[in-house]
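Notebook entry, structure prediction.
Reason for the run: the old model in the group folder had no record of what sequence produced it. Starting over properly, with the input documented here first.
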Amino acid sequence: MNSSLIQLLVLAGIAIFLILKLRSVLGTRDGFEKPPVPLEDVRPQVKRNFDVIEGGPDRDITDHVGDGSDAAKALMAMKQAEPGFSVTPFLEGARGAYEMILMAFEKGELDRIRPFLSDDVEATFAEAIDQREKDGLTVEATFVGMKELALQDATFNRDSGMAEISVRFVGEQTYIVRNKAGEVVEGSTKEIKRQRDVWTFARRMGVDDPNWQLVATGD
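New structure, fully documented this time:
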């Protein structure tokens, strides 16, 4: 074997060794591969867990009345007149007001709730309490809980700033009426009475006084 052939074989062996070495370090490429991304395009991708919808519905309103309804428009106008107003906190306050006013009326304690009543409602309550006293009747009532509470309607007068919100209540209470002799003539301590009412509260928006007044009652 001459020296030229020996040199050729040595060079071929070195080439094969280099190829195998490069494959072990770089790996192989099969099929189509995307071109490398320029360095200036490599940046951390931030995943958004939500989409911001500009001008979307106000859930504080649409959770309680239909979107686009007259009541929804009135509630939105109230918020524009008084940005601090929210429907959900109002309903939470209405729940407490219902229990307080109802129990005070049943017990004839009108002075305690007078600031929360309009003149007409106060006069109606006073007349009913006076008639009970004339008939010699007394009421024993205990509020058990609220079965249902829902916003029924809302109106807003932009000129006067007067807002009215009607709320439907279904409350439960124990209720006993006794005559002069102390005898039970209505109700029972063992039975829970379900009371259904629709009350309308009113307030002028944008004024310092935060209190709503009960202006109408019904069922």
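Summary: The CA atoms of residues 203 and 210 lie 8 Å apart.
The old model has been moved to the deprecated folder.
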